[in-house]
Amino acid sequence: MKTTIDIPEDLYKKAKIRAIERGVTLKQIVLTSLSKELEETSRVAEAPVSYWANRQLLPEYEAAMKEGAFRPKPGDRDITDLISEDRDAR
């Protein structure tokens, strides 16, 4: 399909120089650039998987969690109480 677009003169000159340097036509430079831009957009549209979704616990830590090593024990104070007490002391 043919179309007409207005390209600022400085951008046109840069594109033409790049085409000459690579030994290709201006049309090929424009089509390649457009393709790259559209590929980047589609990659951005995909939701990246966060670091936290991919992380894995060390086997020792996971085993300790299953044994209940990090659960509060009877008589332990709640963290919010400790924080409140610290704030009151200031």
Features:
single chain; 90 residues; mainly alpha; 5 helices; elongated
Structural summary, described in words:
Helix content is 64%, strand content 0%. With 90 residues, the protein is mostly helical. The model has no long low-confidence stretch (mean pLDDT 86).
Tell me the Rg in angstroms.
Answer: 30 Å
Characterize the largest beta sheet: strand count, sense, and whether it forms a barrel: none
- SSE sequence, one letter per element: HHHHH
SS class: mainly alpha
TL;DR?
Helices cover 64% and strands 0% of the residues. The N and C termini lie far apart (73 Å).
Helices and strands in order, then pairings?
Blueprint (H helix, E strand, L loop, with lengths): L8 H14 L3 H20 L5 H4 L4 H9 L11 H11 L1
